[in-house]
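[stage:ingest] chain + small molecule (arginine)
[stage:ingest] validated
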Amino acid sequence: MKKLTALFLALALCLCGTLAMADELTTVEAGKLTISTSPDFPPFEYTDDEDNIIGIEPELLTLIAEKVGLELEILPMDFDSALLAVQQGKSDAVVSGVTVTEGRKLIYDFTESYTVITQAIVFKDGKDITMDTLKDQTIGVQRGTTGQILVEDDFGEDHVVAYDTYSTVFQALLNDQIDCIVMDDAVAKAYLAVNPGLVMVGTTYEPENYAFGITKGNTALLDAVNEALKSFMEDGTVQAIIDKYMAE
Ligand code: ARG
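[stage:predict] done
[stage:export] tokens:
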């Protein structure tokens, strides 16, 4: 009997802990963790045949929302809009394979980083494009990405064509409207897997860290999400989720 009482007490404490945490959190919609994302980014976020948003980040977010006691709501949109949604007060955070940059640190409060990628160049098999010949190419990018920022800085806007989603960037590549794409390597790999005639090579750009970009100044939410994220990194959950989707 004593054991049972102790168990109930422990359970009650657990429940109160979660509820108290959620109570103290101010979010766009009370009780919810509203996330903006661009689900054109496998294996990080994409849609299945029934239009459900799946991938590494949605799966991780589901666990984190549960842990902080909020209901998860994922709003799909173009990447550029997903970044803006946080500033417009439409979402609590952008979680969309977002690279931490000095510029973005002024706009968002970033969580810990949970993975690293580098930029890659994707083009049609048979062409020979490298970092050295990139300056002579018409480069396709997704609007608002670090890929766009990097190549526009290096080669000028005249060499770059920006599209809203990766499906349109890849369509443009297949139709020879652009010579190549500069984008995150892990995602390039996923697109190559379903587009036989394409190949990729690396770049000399710096590695980039992904993190969640939370509303600037929402420290309580940042701390709660960070604590949950850290616990899932420490116990191996994050790596297991990454491995699962990378293997697919
Ligand atoms: N990591 C790059 C960036 O932060 C690209 C992210 C694009 N994400 C997406 N879901 N389409 O700019």
